[in-house]
Structures are given as structure tokens and as C-alpha cells.
Amino acid sequence: MDLGLQDKVVLVTGGSRGLGAVICRMFAAEGARVGVNYCRSRAEAEALAGGIGSGRAAPIPGDIGREADIAAIFDRLEQALGPVDVLVNNAAHCPGGPLEKYTRAEWEHTFAVNVTGAFRAAQEFILRLRARRAPGWIVNIASTSAFLGSTSGHLPYDASKGALISMTHALAREVAREGIHVNSVAPGMVLTEMVAKVWEARKEQYLARIPLHRIAQPEEVARVVVFLASPAASYMTGATVDVSGGLLMH
Ligand SMILES: NC(=O)c1ccc[n+]([C@@H]2O[C@H](COP(=O)([O-])OP(=O)(O)OC[C@H]3O[C@@H](n4cnc5c(N)ncnc54)[C@H](OP(=O)(O)O)[C@@H]3O)[C@@H](O)[C@H]2O)c1
């Protein structure tokens, strides 16, 4: 199936490593040009963009939780590869621990990256799409924890992913008639740095809850993200697609 992504310009926040890096490579394989946003992982972002090739990918620095960086991220990407057609809100902060551990600052930082950052990126993107009367695609990377919570103590993160899904609905309704599609993906457990340690420590407990009885490889989530970000998903907006091996069914 041709996804219609040839030469589309894609911004993947937190694209330097983990799931984001796999999403970047998969867009590039579909012929898209990719902005690999990074906050701390500059070397990884440069290596990833370099591997895809100049003119096809660019490392884009910027802290998604920092107001001053949002417009600058889009400016840099436009200068490097052209106006943006697809935004993947993938960057996330995931602190761990029991509820008594969290400070207000930790809660606020989690929301600043996972919710406010995703909102500001979407807002900036939509305003730029409107200015050129172009259609667009937004995919927000949520989590099954938005619906189920976590058994390993990630309360601010879980709540932030719930907010991201609510924001997906509100945004999707508001911009649908402008040809802008907004959807979410809710992964279960995916083998990246974010969960590698907890997975090893509690593998049997997690396996018992996952009907497919294994953890996802990032590619299995990335495929769904790329599809949702393409004209091939033409009748989808406001959806949250579970990619959880059956951990969540609804
Ligand atoms: N792994 C899972 O099991 C799982 C399950 C459900 C949902 N998810 C979601 O999938 C997405 C990717 O997660 P992952 O597993 O790949 O996590 P990860 O390996 O921990 O990577 C996190 C990514 O977020 C970026 N990031 C963090 N703070 C940032 C900021 N302020 N500005 C820009 N980038 C920032 C990091 O970039 P730098 O290194 O450059 O700072 C990194 O690329 C997240 O939205 C996560 O919530 C993951």
C-alpha cells in the first residue's frame, strides 16, 4: 500500500532514540523527509539524521517543555527541509516512584513536556498550516497507562497521557474541517530505555497481563504511527489506537 508520504516533511519530537528514532527511520523509508528533534541526545540525533542522508533528514535541537524553543524548532526544520506536513508528539518525561515522592516541580515538569509541550507544538504547527492553507497530520504518542494507570508508580506520567488523549479529541474536532487529522496511539509495553529495567525486573508479572505474551518491539508501534500520519488514514481523526498486545481492550 502506498502511504502517500513521499517528500512530506515530518517533525518527530524526541526523535533521537527509543521509539522516536524508529519512527524517524520508518518515515524516511516511506520517502518522507524527517526532522529529528532532540533535547539531550545530540550525538544520537546527528548520527540518525546523517544515516538517513542530507536533504532527507535534519537534527533539530529544542526542549519541548521550553516555551522559547517551540517556534524555533519549526523555523529550523522549515529552513532545513521545508514546511512541516506531519507532527508526531513523541517526546516524554517519565519519572517513577510512589505518590508521596513527587514534588510539585516534578509534576509540573512532566506536564510541561508531555502535555503543554505537545499542545504548543500542535498549536504552532496548526497556525503554520493555516497560513499556507495546507492539510496536516498530528499523531500523539499516549500510553495504555492513561486508561489503566501503572503498577510500577508513574502517577504524573499516567495523568499526563490521559490529558494528551483528551487534547487529541478536542483538537481533532476543532480542526477537522481544515483537513487536519489528529489521532493518538496508546502503546502498552515497548522495549526501549524507558522500560527496559522495569521489564527485566518484573517480566513475569507483565507477561501475565499481556494476551500476546510478549513486549512490543518499537517497530510494531512505529508502523501504526506512520500509517496514522499518512493520507492512507483518510477517514480517521480523534481516534486512539491501542498497540498493546491486548493489554488494553475497549
Ligand atoms: N516504552 C514504552 O513502553 C512506552 C509505552 C507507552 C508509551 N510510550 C511513549 O512512547 C514515547 C517514546 O518513549 P520511549 O520509550 O522511546 O522513551 P525513551 O527511550 O525514554 O525516550 C524519550 C525521548 O523523549 C525525549 N525527550 C524527553 N524530554 C524531552 C524534552 N523536554 N524535549 C524534547 N525531547 C525530550 C528524549 O530525547 P533526549 O534524549 O534528546 O532528551 C527521548 O528521545 C513517549 O511518548 C512514551 O511516553 C512508551
Question: Would you mind describing this structure in some detail?
Answer:
This protein has 250 residues and is of the alpha/beta class. It has a single domain (9-234), classed as Rossmann fold. It has nine helices and seven strands. Strands 3-2-1-4-5-6-7 form a seven-stranded parallel sheet, with helices on both faces. Helix 4 (104-131) runs parallel beside helix 6. The mean pLDDT is 97. The chain binds NADP nicotinamide-adenine-dinucleotide phosphate (NAP). NADP nicotinamide-adenine-dinucleotide phosphate binds next to helix 1, strand 2 and helix 7.
Structural descriptors:
250 residues; alpha/beta; Rossmann fold; seven-stranded parallel beta sheet; 7 strands; binds NADP nicotinamide-adenine-dinucleotide phosphate
What's a quick, concise take on this entry?
The protein is an alpha/beta fold and 250 residues long. 47% of the residues lie in helices and 15% in strands.
Helices and strands in order:
Layout (H helix, E strand, L loop, with lengths): L8 E4 L5 H12 L3 E6 L3 H11 L4 E5 L5 H15 L4 E4 L14 H28 L4 E6 L3 H4 L6 H21 L4 E8 L5 H9 L1 H7 L8 H11 L11 E4 L7
Parallel strand pairs: 1-2, 1-4, 2-3, 4-5, 5-6, 6-7
Helix pairs in contact: 1-9, 3-4, 4-6
The protein binds NADP nicotinamide-adenine-dinucleotide phosphate (NAP).
Proportion of beta-strand residues? 5-15%
Give the CATH H-level superfamily.
Answer: NAD(P)-binding Rossmann-like Domain
CATH topology: Rossmann fold
Give me the Rg, rounded: 17 Å
State the strand order across the main sheet.
3-2-1-4-5-6-7
Largest sheet report: 7 strands, parallel
N-to-C series of helices and strands: EHEHEHEHEHHEHHHE
- CATH architecture, please? 3-Layer(aba) Sandwich
